[in-house]
Amino acid sequence: MAHEENADMMMEELELTKKLDQFKHKIMVLSGKGGVGKSTVAANLAISLGLNGFKTGLLDIDFHGPSIPKLLGLEHETIHTDENGINPLVYGTNLKVMSLGMLLKSKDDAVIWRGPMKMGAIKQLIKDVNWGELDYFIIDSPPGTGDEPLSVVQIIKNPTGAVVVTTPQDLSVSDVRRSITFCDKVKLPVLGVIENMSGFICPHCHEKTDIFKSGGGQVMAKDMNVNFLGQIPLEPDIVTASDEGRPYIYYYGKSETAKKIDIIIQNLLTFIGDSKPVPQAEPQPAEPEKLPENIKRYGIPVTDGKLCQHFGHSDKFALIDYDLEQNKIIKTEIKNPPPHEPGILPKWLHEQGVHVIIAGGMGERAKNLFIDAGIEVFIGAAVDTPENLVCAHVKKELIAGENMCDH
Fold first, then answer.
1. Cα dihedral angle (128, 130, 133, 139), rounded to 10 degrees?
2. Which pLDDT value is given to residue 281?
3. Residue 137 belongs to what H/E stretch?
4. Cα gap 99→115, rounded to integer Å
5. Distance CA 270, CA 229 (A)
6. How far apart are CA 244 and CA 173, in angstroms?
7. 100 pLDDT more than 80
8. How far apart (Å, rounded) are the C-alpha atoms in residues 362 and 319?
9. How far apart are the C-alpha atoms of 215 and 230, rounded to whole Å?
């Protein structure tokens, strides 16, 4: 019996080693205490790496408070399995995501486990998930220096290192010092410290107010002789985006705060000694259908025959051709869109020859993607039939109301 158990343990270790060998860099995101925005930083770190062209995996092992599904808007998605194991959820092109929270029957379920059960679950979330080959494997750990981070260090054996998140005030900084001491004791390299909530920038007057002080993390990093990666200000849009499941770095990529996050990523890559992958040539989109100059084609997301207020949730699109010479609609076609992954719909609607999109709500990033594709965007339309909306737009009678979903 003992021989069989030893054989099973050896087989499990071999499977884990084989899986971990597919990950080039393995990074833990730690914090000394809760409430410092560690999961938000981990999510935006992973997405930013993906946007930079790296194949990235994000594993949430905060069993008692898994935040990643909520932060990425994936809490209602279904996990599927096949003969090869568990399929992680895919966000965009380069990011794969897995969290214990995605496997619970209800988001309100409590996980009451002791150390050995957590160790077993972490092993399963690594070896039984179809991660594939990754440039970066980001692990969002719970606050403190308890079972989960210790288990990860024991399982991975040769992690690239840890990114430690703090806020500037003394209480948080003192807790982070203990996290760095933990890393030293378990021989986990500290890749750097990120100071989150470092000053509040007023969106109206743009003046900075140091609500939680500023610079505490940077001073601590210098005192403890570890790398300082950068500061992220306290940004209202980060809070709103997180609550609505819209990763800040993706939807507000041109903001000043997003630029600071990008600096942190570049500092991290420099410290690790990595560089951006050579971009692969993307397949060229199909040429849009050529329409006569007198035809304007509209694209409208619809559900049950009327405008769908949540642009990314629509199950069909109405493509309507309006003849500007005859001053009437000459064709209406209902089409099924491709899967709603970031960046897909602008390319698809461009290929359909759409000139104008009428929507109830849309995020700034999505809007910019459509504009870049040469498509005019009207946001804030009320629920109505696509035909009525098109006629009102042509007559310049369509009234823009509130952006109903902004994601």
1. -60
2. 46
3. strand 134-140
4. 18
5. 10
6. 29
7. no
8. 18
9. 10
Q: How far is the C-alpha of 98 from the C-alpha of 74, rounded, in Å?
A: 10
Contact between 193 and 221 under an 8 Å Cβ cutoff? The reply is yes
Task: Look at residue 107 in the predicted model and tell me its pLDDT.
Answer: 54
The yes-or-no verdict on residue 108 having pLDDT over 70 is: no
Report how far residue 385's alpha carbon sits from residue 388's, in angstroms, rounded to the nearest whole number: 5
Token output for 342:
């970031």
Residue 250 tokens, joined: 């993706």
Q: Which two tokens stand for residue 211?
A: 């609500």
For the record, the structure tokens of 29 come out as 């995101």
The token duo for 232 is 């992220």
Strand 228-234 vs strand 208-209: parallel, antiparallel, or unpaired? unpaired
Residues 60-65 have a mean pLDDT of: 74
Rg (CA), the chain: 24
HSE (CB half, 13 Å, CA atoms) of 19? 22
Segment among 126-135, 331-340, 372-381 with least mean pLDDT? 331-340
Matching residue, tokens 């694209």: 299
Token duo for residue 284: 């060229």
pLDDT at 283: 47
Which H or E element spans position 135?
Answer: strand 134-140
133 Cβ contact list (under 8 Å, min separation 6): 22, 23, 55
The full set of domains in the chain, from first to last, is: 13-272 (3.40.50.300), 295-394 (3.30.420.130)
Q: CA end-to-end span of the chain, whole Å?
A: 55
Does the pTM exceed 0.85? no
At 310-367, the pLDDT tens digits run 776 677 899 999 999 999 999 999 988 876 655 678 888 888 899 999 998 887 777 8
Q: Is the dihedral of CA 137, 47, 247, 256 positive or negative?
A: positive
Full DSSP string of 372-389: HTT-EEEE-PPS--HHHH
